[in-house]
Amino acid sequence: MMCRTGQRPDPHGAGGEQAPDAAFAALLEDSAEELYESAPCGYLSTLMDGTIAKINATLLGWLGREREAVVGRMRFADLLTVGGKLYHETHFAPLLRMQGEVSGIALEIRQADGARMPVLISSAVKYGDTGEPLLIRTTVFDARDRRAYEEELLRGRKAAEEAQRRAEADRARLQDALAVLQQSLLPDTLPPVPGVETAAYYHTASPDRLGGDFYDVFPVDGKRFAFFLGDVCGKGPEAAAVTSLTRYTLRAAAVHDPGPVSALSTLNKVLHERYTGSGDPRYCTAVFGTVEPHPTTGQAAVRLASGGHPPALVLRADGTAEFLPTPGGLLVGILPAADFVTATTVLSPGDTLLLYTDGLTEARTGRDRRGLYGDEALLAFAAGQAGKPPRDVVRALTELLRGFGDGLDDDTALLALGVPAPAPRQDRAR
Amino acid sequence: MNPALGSARTAARADRARSRAGPDTAGYPVTVPDRFGETRDACETDGMDIVHRNNVTVTGNPRGRTVVLAHGFGCDQNMWRLTVPALAGEYRVVLFDHVGSGRSDPSAFSEDRYASLEGYAEDVAEICEALDLRDAVFVGHSVSAMIGVLAAGRVPERIGALVMVAPSPRYIDEDGYRGGFSVEDIDELLESLESNYLGWSAAMAPVIMGNAERPELGEELKNSFCATDPDMARVFARTTFLSDSRGDLGSVRVPTLVLECAQDAIAPREVGAFVHRAIPGSALVTLDATGHCPHLSAPEATNEAILDFLAVSR
C-alpha cells in the first residue's frame, strides 16, 4: 500500500495563485439567472395542467421559438411529437402524478421548422406547504448523439435476434437431417437372435452425434447371424461417411459369403479402391463374425476375424475372462490385399462375447488424465462381470465409461452377445 | 338519461385536487378483506388462477355493490389509488391488472389472445365469473372503457352499468371521423415504447411481477407502475390504438356514463360526443380537467361524477 506522508506540491501552488482566483471571481459573477438561461440543458416550468410558465433560452434555441409564442400559450406536451404526446399521456404524466418525479425519459421535441430533436426528459413536481402540487419542473437534455448510439445498439440487437432466429431454424433443420443420417449409421435396435442375447452401447464424442465407430447385427441365412463392430480413423462427419460405406459394404458382402475373412477382404478392397489416390486415405479396424446357435445343445458357435482391431473378450460363466486372439489382421483398406485369419470359440450358457472399440481402452485415467485405461484393466473388469448376461455387462461398462468423465474423448462402441444361462442352473450355482 | 348527470355541478375544478396526488401516498395498501376468502371457496379452481393471472384485488365495503376499476394502456391498477378511498366506504371495489401490465402473470400472455380487445374482454368476463359478480359497475379508463363495452355484451347479468373514463372507440382518423391520430403517429408511440423501458428490465421483472402482495415501493422500484415487458407493451399498444370499436357502442344496453376531459390530447371532445351519441341513453359529463387521466389530475371531480352516477344507476 502506498502512503503519502510527505508534503505534496499543491497543483495550484505558488506562482499560479493570481490566475485561479481571478477566474473564480469571474465565475461568481455568473448569476443564477444567467446560469438558468444559458445552462447546457433546457429548463421548463409548467402549471400542473402542463401550461408552460417559464422556459430558458437554451430550450427556446433548440425549439427555434420565441418566448412570447411559448409561455402561457403552449403546454409541455405540445413540444413533443404526436407519438411522444401519446407516450406522455399514457406513461409520463400518470407516473409523474403518482411518484412526484420521473427521470430520464427518451422523447423527441418538435422544432419550429418541423425537425425533431431527441432529448432526455426529467420532471419533478413542486409541492406547497400543505402538500398540494404547485408546478412541474422539467429538465431537457440534448440526446442527439446518445439516441444515434442507442439506435445503433437497437439495430444491432434486432440483427442479432434475427440472426439467432435464423440460426436456430437452421440448427433444427440440420439436427433433423443429422438424425436421419445417424440412423443410417447405427441400427435403431438389434434384431432378436434366437438363443442368443445381445446388447450394445454407443457413445459419440462429436457434438453433432456423427461418429466413426459402428456395429451391427443381422441375419444372413436360416441358421447364422452376422455381427460386426469397428472404428474408422478420424471423428465427425468425415469419419461418418466412411462408417456408412463400411457398414453397407459389410452387409452386402455377407449376403454373398458370410465368412468373416471374405467379408473383411471385400471391405478392404472397397475402402482401398475408394480412398487410395483421393489424397485422403481412409481405413478402419473391424471385427466381423458370425454366430450360430445350436438348436439342441444351447451352445452357440462363433467364428470371427479381425482387421487391426483390439481382440474380442470372452466372459465365461465360471467367472473367468480371456481375450480371443485374432493374429495378424491388418488395418482394413490400407493395402490392396490383406490377409485375415479366422478365430473360433463356442459360447456355452452363461458365456458372453464382448466387442469394443479403443475409445474404451484408450480412455485417459488418473487425476492428471495421463494414464490410459488399458487392456489389463479391461480384462480385470471383464472378469468381474463374467457370468452376467450381455445387458448387465454392457450396463456395467457404460457406468465405467461415465466414470471416465472428460477422460473419454473418443467415440466408443460396445457390442455383447451371450448365451443365456438357464435359470435353474443359476439357482444351483448360488 | 338522467338530466342531473349532465349538469354543471360536476364541472369541478381540477386544481381542487388535494395533496393526495403527492408522492408519499405511493403504493396505498390494497387489502384483501376476509370475506374474500369466502369468495375464493365459492370459485371454481380455475377461478383462483384468474385471480392470480390478473392480480385481482378486492377491497372496500363487502356488502356494497361491486365496482370494478379497470386501468387503461400504460400503467396498472395503481392508477385508481385516488379513486378507491372515495368508493371504498359504500362500495365493494375490485381492481386488477390486464395481462401484460402491472403484476399480472406474465406466463399468461399470448400475442394472439391480446391482439384484439376481445381477448381482454374475455379476461374481464372471467374475472366477473371468478368472483361471481352480479350487476357490477364496470369503470374503464381509456381503452378499458371499450373493453367494458365488450365484456358487458359477454356477461350481461354480471355487468349492470358502465362508466367510460376518457373513452375512444377509434383513435385513427378516417373519412368523416376524427379520432385524432394517424397510423404513423402510433408507430411513433411504438418507438417511444422501444426507447423507454422505464422500470422494466429482464433482471427486475421477477421483483416487479412476482410479488403479489405489493410491498411499499422502494426507490429501486421507481417507475414500476408502468413497468411492462416491452414486447407485451407493444402488443397492447397496437391493440389499443389500432382497434376500431365504433360498431360495438350501439350494443350497450346498460346505464352508461361517459366521462371526458375538457382538454384531452388522446380522446378529444368530439370523440366523447361521438361515444355519447352512439350509446343509447348514455350520460355525458365533461370534467374541467387537462390530460388523459382525470382520476389522477382531477380526482375529486372524477370521483364525484362517478359517485353521482352510482347513486342514480342502481
CATH architecture of the largest domain in chain A: 4-Layer Sandwich
Strand count, sense and barrel status of the largest sheet of chain B are: 7 strands, mixed
Helix fraction bin of chain B? 25-40%
Q: Please report which band the strand proportion of chain B falls in: under 5%, 5-15%, 15-25%, 25-35%, 35-45% or over 45%.
A: 5-15%
**CATH third-level topology of chain B:** Rossmann fold
Instruction: Please state the CA-atom Rg of chain A, rounded to the nearest Å.
Output: 41 Å
The unreliable regions of chain A are 1-11, 425-430
Number of helices of chain A: 12
Taken from the alpha-carbon principal axes, the silhouette of chain B is: globular
Rg of chain B: 18 Å
Side-by-side strand order of the widest sheet of chain A: 2-1-5-4-3
The rough form of chain A would be described as: rod-shaped
| Unreliable segments of 5+ consecutive residues of chain B | 1-45, 199-221
Walkthrough of the structure:
The complex is a heterodimer of chains A (430) and B (314). Chain A is built from 12 helices and 17 strands. Chain A is α+β, with helices and mostly antiparallel strands and 430 residues long. The longest helix of chain A is centred in the middle third of the chain and has 42 residues, at 144-185. Mean pLDDT of chain A is 87; it is low at 1-11 and 425-430. The longest helix of chain B is centred in the C-terminal third of the chain and has 15 residues, at 299-313. Chain B has one domain (3-313): 3-Layer(aba) Sandwich (Rossmann fold), CATH 3.40.50. The model of chain B is unreliable at 1-45 and 199-221 (pLDDT under 50). Chain B has helices at 35-42, 45-53, 84-88, 117-130, 143-154, 183-195, 205-210, 230-242, 269-278, 294-297, 299-313, and strands at residues 57-60, 66-70, 92-96, 136-141, 159-165, 256-263, 283-290. The chains are: A alpha+beta (430), B alpha/beta (314). The interface between A and B is large, with 37 and 48 residues.
